[in-house]
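Researcher: Quick one. two chains, 190 residues in total.
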Amino acid sequence: MGRISEAEIATALDDRADWQRNGDAIVRTVDCGDFVGAVEFVNRIVPVAEAANHHPDLAISWKNVTVKLSTHSEGGLTEKDFALAREIDSLAAID
Amino acid sequence: MGRISEAEIATALDDRADWQRNGDAIVRTVDCGDFVGAVEFVNRIVPVAEAANHHPDLAISWKNVTVKLSTHSEGGLTEKDFALAREIDSLAAID
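Model:
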């Protein structure tokens, strides 16, 4: 699965309103209420990341979790990133 | 509990060999073996952070967790940071 084109990225981002482009990655910050909520959100990401064998960078700062997705092996964004972004949006919607 | 002096920071860092100064903070990166191990380490930090009412910034990148401690309310490093660093070192030693 290779990198997707800029046009494909733009189309995919149209469907992911909470995500922003950041160089070779896409990022979303989720407000989880407090520190415990932030870590619980990270825990919910584990099974979907493991199942996809695709692991986002995760930054916890008090109540906020910033998720950063990129496909390092391809040097940029692939369909795997947007598939995982969609799953993470579903997890975030539970809050 | 206010900011500690540069001399006190230097002395405290002498006891925390795995931590580096980073501006107004101290940081340590812990290799947890894999992504699941990294998230497990973050979970172990939760009760000690909650008990201290002091919450590090935590960055997970695959197998690595980077812990960043600072006392934002004081605008710099306090004894709370080094107390929590000591507890986190104990948790990291379990790996």
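DSSP finds three helices and four strands in chain B.
Researcher: Thanks, that's what I needed.
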